[in-house]
Structure formats: structure tokens, C-alpha cells
């Protein structure tokens, strides 16, 4: 079963790599401005605020995890099929917004399926999840090399291929058992609230990176292949974290991993914003992706499993996705667009650094909550 989960992560995040790395330049090539790009990229995050939790409630109650994952992947297939034929800010906004109401359901449900299959052995999550990082890495590196010789206009077709394959793999995923108490109210304790708040600010901190990193480096004169390598370098660090995750979880408390990861975010985004023309510093900043996303995400997913009961695992993971990557990602993208237009990339990445500091402040009290 683990190889099927690994295959899904690989295909899903290969498409995500193309999205994060090259969708902003694609929209720019289609005539959108910085603020318009930020708003379009924020719409899927806004959809993640409510949509995944609604879908997860159905999944927990009826055991429909696999069916909803397939439906979500189908929405992605439709989106990428239509994207080359859509024009203007309004057209892209409608396309991204409507399809995201379905598409954002996939990942948190697959996370719940994976942790359910592992039956409490959360250290094994990393070696499965790393296949997503490998897919992301291959996609961003290949995409950067492609851009050195070809047009970005082919992007939707490549994303369509990966999402179609993910849909096929999704059909083979297991269906968790139905819990009789799954329809009861979802109780969010203080530890869960602190964890969700930290996740919100850490997702917001990555808003400038995901929206404007490629454009930032293009303005500094970096070639597409080097930009692709820099994206890849960050994911290589992330893969290393996932490989050694069982050892990390045995040696460190989850709260310690969360705090250290957020601290790395404070430094990383300042370096990218103000010292990106120094290649050696930029290389080191990208390696910190291992912490700011890799270790933070893995520790947060494991912590969510601890603070929510078994009958609410899908809802717990979806709430984490909604508040963190949904609300946090949307706020981060919109703030990035505003800060970029107001005072340029240095200010935008400074806003990201401040958000990472807030994530650290909310994660620190978890050390007293037994996490």
C-alpha cells in the first residue's frame, strides 16, 4: 500500500512544483500584473479555508476518502484542460476559484489515509511523503531547464499530465473504516489552537516565496536553469528531512522541531529578500526549506494526529490544511502582492520573516503541552 501512496504524492507534488515554480510567470506572460497574480494564487488558498473541512466531514462520516480524492483530482484535470483557453484576470479568477472548491480536498484526505495506514507509526510518514518532494524537485528542475529554450505557455499541458496520472492512482487508494462517532462535534483544545495558529503564520510566511521567488530571481538576472536548480535545492533538503524523520521524531519533541523550523524561516526570508544577489547566501537560504517547510510540515501533521481523536482524523488534517495552507496561504499571497507593489521584493520578504516569527511565538508554548 505504501508504494501507491508514494506514487500519489509523487504525481500530485510534481504538478504542485510546476504550479509553485512557474504558474506566476505563466500568468505574467498571459498579461496579469503582480497584484492580479497574487489574488489569483490566493483564491485556491481561500477555498482551502472552508472546502476541505466540509469534504472531510463527509469523508469521516461515510468513509468516502478515496471517492473525494478522485473527485478533487478530476477538478484539477478540468482546470488544466481549460486554462489555455481562458483569458484575463476575471477568467483566471473564476477558473481557479471554482475548481479549487473541489481540488483542495485531495491532499488533507490523503494525509489522513496515510497516517491511518501507518497505524500510529508516524515516523514512517517521512519515507512515504518524500516521494512528493522528489516529484516536486524533478518538476521544478525540468521546468526551469525548459524555460531556457521554450515558452512557458506549455505549462498547463504538463500539469494536466501529472494530475491525470494522480487521478488514476487515486482510484487504487484504500478506504478507511467509517467511525460511528464521526458525526459528532469537533473539539479544538488549546494545544490544537496554538498549533493551528503557528501553522497559519508559517504558511503565510511562504506567501512571497511561492508567489514571487521565480520573478524575483528573474529580475536579478538568474537564468531559468539556475532558478530551477534553486527550487530543487530546497526540495533536496526537504527530502533529507523526510528520510531521517524517524530518527528526528525519536530524538526531539515535536514542539522543539516546530520552534526550530520557524526560527529558520525568520532568517531564510530575510536573506532571500535582501541578499539574493549573493549566490552562496541564496543557496544556504534555499537549503533552509528543509526546516521551514519539511520538518515543520512533518511535525505539524504528526502533532495534529495527537491532538484530535481517531474518529476526527480527516477533519483534523483538513482543519490544519484550511487554517494553515488555506487561510495562511491566502493571507500570505495577498500580503506578498501588496508589499511587492508597495516597496519591492525586500519589503515583501521582510513581511514573510515577520510572519515566521509569529509562527515561532505560537509554537513555543506547545513545549508545555506535552507535544
What report would you give on this structure?
By secondary structure, this protein is mostly helical. The protein has one domain: MFS general substrate transporter like domains (Growth Hormone, Chain: A, Up-down Bundle), CATH 1.20.1250. It is built from 16 helices and no strands. The longest helix has 31 residues, at 313-343. 58% of the residues are buried. The model has no long low-confidence stretch (mean pLDDT 88).
Kindly name the structural category.
Answer: mainly alpha
Cα Rg: 19 Å
Domain count, please report it. 1
**Number of separate helices:** 16
Number of strands: 0
Please state the average pLDDT score: 88
Taking pLDDT < 50 over at least 5 consecutive residues as the criterion, the unreliable ranges are: none
How far is it from the N-terminal to the C-terminal residue, by CA? 29 Å
Please provide the ordered H/E string of secondary-structure elements. Answer: HHHHHHHHHHHHHHHH
CATH topology: Growth Hormone, Chain: A
Amino acid at each position: 500500500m505504501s508504494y501507491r501512496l508514494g506514487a500519489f504524492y509523487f504525481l500530485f507534488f510534481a504538478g504542485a512544483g510546476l504550479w509553485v515554480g512557474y504558474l506566476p510567470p505563466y500568468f505574467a506572460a498571459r498579461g496579469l500584473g503582480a497584484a492580479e497574480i497574487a489574488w489569483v494564487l490566493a483564491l485556491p488558498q481561500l477555498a482551502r479555508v472552508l472546502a476541505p473541512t466540509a469534504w472531510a466531514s463527509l469523508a469521516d462520516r461515510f468513509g468516502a476518502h478515496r471517492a473525494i480524492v478522485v473527485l478533487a483530482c478530476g477538478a484539477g484535470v478540468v482546470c488544466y484542460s481549460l486554462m489555455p483557453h481562458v483569458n484575463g484576470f476575471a477568467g483566471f479568477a473564476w477558473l481557479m476559484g471554482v475548481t479549487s472548491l473541489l481540488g483542495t480536498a485531495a491532499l488533507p484526505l490523503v494525509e489522513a489515509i496515510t497516517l491511518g495506514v501507518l497505524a500510529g507509526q508516524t515516523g514512517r510518514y517521512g519515507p512515504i511523503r518524500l516521494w512528493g518532494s522528489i516529484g516536486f524537485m524533478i518538476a521544478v528542475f525540468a521546468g526551469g531547464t525548459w524555460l531556457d529554450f521554450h515558452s512557458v505557455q506549455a505549462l498547463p499541458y504538463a500539469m494536466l499530465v501529472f494530475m491525470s496520472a494522480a487521478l488514476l492512482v487515486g482510484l487504487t487508494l484504500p478506504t478507511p473504516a467509517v467511525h460511528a462517532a464521526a458525526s459528532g462535534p469537533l473539539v479544538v483544545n488549546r494545544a490544537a489552537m496554538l498549533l493551528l495558529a503557528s501553522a497559519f503564520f508559517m504558511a503565510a510566511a511562504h506567501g512571497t516565496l511561492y508567489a514571487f521567488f521565480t520573478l524575483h530571481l528573474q529580475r536579478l538576472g538568474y537564468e531559468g536553469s539556475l532558478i530551477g536548480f534553486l527550487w530543487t535545492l530546497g526540495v533536496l533538503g526537504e527530502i533529507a528531512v523526510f528520510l531521517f524523520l524517524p530518527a528526528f521524531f525519536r530524538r526531539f519533541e515535536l514542539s522543539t522541531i516546530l520552534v526550530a523550523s520557524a526560527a529558520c524561516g525568520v532568517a531564510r526570508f530575510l536573506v532571500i529578500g535582501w541578499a539574493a544577489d549573493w549566490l552562496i547566501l541564496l543557496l544556504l537560504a534555499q537549503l533552509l526549506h528543509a526546516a521551514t517547510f519539511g520538518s515543520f510540515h512533518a511535525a505539524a501533521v504528526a502533532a495534529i494526529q495527537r491532538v484530535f481523536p481517531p474518529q476526527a482524523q480527516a477533519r483534523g488534517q483538513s482543519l490544519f490544511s484550511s487554517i494553515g495552507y488555506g487561510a495562511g496561504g491566502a493571507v500570505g499571497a495577498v500580503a506578498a502582492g501588496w508589499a511587492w507593489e508597495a516597496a519591492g521584493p525586500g519589503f515583501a520578504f521582510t513581511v514573510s520573516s515577520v510572519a515566521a516569527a509569529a509562527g515561532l511565538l505560537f509554537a513555543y508554548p506547545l513545549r508545555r503541552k506535552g507535544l
